[in-house]
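Predicting holo structure, adenosine-5'-diphosphate bound.
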Amino acid sequence: MNAILEVRDLSKSFGGIKAVNGVSFDVAPGELKALIGPNGAGKSTCFNMLMGQLEPTSGTVRLQGEKITGLPPRKIWRRGVGRTFQITGTYQSMTVAENVQMALISHHRRLFSVLPYAHTLYRDEALALLDVVGMAEQADRACAILAYGDLKRLELAIALSHNPKLLLMDEPTAGMAPKERINLMQLTADIVRDRGISVLFTEHDMDVVFAHAHHIMVLNRGELIAEGTAAEVRENARVQEVYLGG
Ligand code: ADP
Ligand code: MG
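Done. Tokens:
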């Protein structure tokens, strides 16, 4: 099947620093793919270019065959590229369900027409999405009192409300306890399987990566140095060198 995302020769320089240097890869439909690499390898720079936050110095990005390079973030998001790394996307004064309802209202472009009765709209759809992320029982709690791990799961429900084809998650488990990390990635893997979407994520916890990613790419100093299954990447001499500081 055709790739959902095709990245070709993507580069970004900041002054003299080549933060990302000639990176090419595909993401297949239904694939859970990890981009790993040491701090400063260029992972976030890559993600920011895929989302339209940063303009590449050169290279192209295609979503389902259509070039999206250089489009503003909102247009890329509208075409079906979701993301979850922004915790600030939740409205603290609203309940969990209301946050998802707001996302659904925005997705259906009905924000201004429905504001007076927004709290009743898309309630059932919101509850269904909260059920997907295991938060149905917390639907009517205020966001402000949620535990960090629950806020992360709420973020995932909000991202899903836009029905993305591809989800980009830049260090989704940062700041979480080890057990919570495994849970969030298990949940993500279940969503990938059940909804057939693709996910590209970065993560520094290797246990999480090796346990869940279908395919792993390793970035070092802006260049992809290895890719493959967990076993292949683990045994790769260059990867060991980078991670063990050889
Ligand atoms: P990672 O996410 O893998 O830790 P980054 O993509 O954040 O790596 O950073 C890659 C390199 O690009 C680093 O050397 C970083 O200092 C540099 N960099 C990132 N963003 C900027 C920026 N806005 N201006 C200048 N240099 C940057
Ligand atoms: Mg980063």
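Residues 178-195 form the longest helix (18 residues).
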